[in-house]
Specification:
Blueprint lengths: L2 H72 L7 H69 L27
Length: 177
């Protein structure tokens, strides 16, 4: 095989390997960024859901306290003393439940934000891997080219001096045999 085609094929092959390594890392980085954005969106949703649920639970609390007041009034109790303490305790319990629900949503949101941060770290690692893979492929190709060069793969055969044949003597053509 002649030297120039081999050299061209080796360089093109190295170029494809470098590009492939870079694209693979770039794709992994894009996927990690996409996943991070999804996690952030879900974290924001948790905050919105916490507000909606708190509002719903407070409305439900007010309805329940209204039913409690009506029940106490129907029995002839006045809203003082023990009935008032019962209603205050009921309201406190509802607020405690609302606080726990909000806290649970905040924990879920923080966990999702943490996942988003992990995906962003994966993105950074993928970008680094892309660059390092590209450099590694380039160095491997350069090493292959150097090895092929040292083995004489790119040397062109010497042209015979004018008037001399480039064919080696055949058996029987050697003198003395």
């Amino acid at each position: 095989m002649q030297a120039l085609p081999m050299l061209i094929m080796a360089v093109v092959s190295t170029g494809f390997q470098m590009y492939s390594s870079y694209q693979e890392g770039k794709t992994a980085a894009a996927m990690a960024e996409y996943n991070a954005k999804i996690m952030e969106q879900q974290a924001r949703q948790q905050g919105k859901v916490a507000l909606i649920e708190a509002r719903r639970l407070r409305d439900e609390k007010e309805r329940y306290l209204g039913m409690q007041r009506a029940a106490f009034s129907a029995t002839g109790f006045t809203l003082e003393g023990s009935p008032l303490e019962v209603m205050a305790e009921t309201a406190n319990q509802w607020e405690w439940d609302i606080s726990l629900n909000t806290y649970d949503r905040q924990l879920k949101a923080a966990n999702l934000e943490g996942q988003a941060n992990i995906y962003r770290m994966q993105k950074a690692a993928a970008k680094m891997k892309a660059t390092m893979g590209m450099i590694g492929s380039g160095l491997a190709g350069a090493t292959d080219l150097a090895t092929m060069g040292s083995m004489g793969a790119f040397k062109t055969p010497a042209k015979p001096a004018s008037g001399l044949s480039n064919t080696s003597p055949q058996m029987g053509q050697l003198s003395g045999f």
